[in-house]
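JOB MANIFEST
job_type = single_chain_structure
chain_count = 1
residues = 146
[input]
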Amino acid sequence: MPILMSSMEQPFRQTWQKKGENHIITFRLEMANEKYLKDQTPLLEKGISLLSDLLFHPYVEDGVFSQLYVDQEKRTLKQRIQAVYDDKMRYSNLRLVQEMCKGEPYALHVNGEMEDIDAITAHSLFEAYEHALQSNQLDFLCCRRC
């Protein structure tokens, strides 16, 4: 993220949510309205271009995601899942949903299952990414104050 912030000098973030049986990935970029700045550089166009590049032209090596980055993200994901187990309130809520919705997609936690992470490879993740782009709904929302 520091690379993104230094290159665009704008805050960028992404979040993962689960609403019912739907997983939602949000990319968010906040920037100043250029009419309030001395420099009239079209920030909105640059921001949309950045989001487009992140979504449709991610960094790849040999046609798949970088194995180094995939391994880093797998470690981060394991830490997120472990954090739920370490928090009694969040873990009890997780177990409640798992038992109430056993066998249903709703029972799956937004971060997935610890035992599934090791099977993820740069290739399998890139295939899942391509499938998601081709088959999932993509919404673009731009909010701007006048």
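[summary]
The chain has a mean pLDDT of 87.
Strands lie at 12-19, 22-29, 60-61, 64-65.
exit_status = 0
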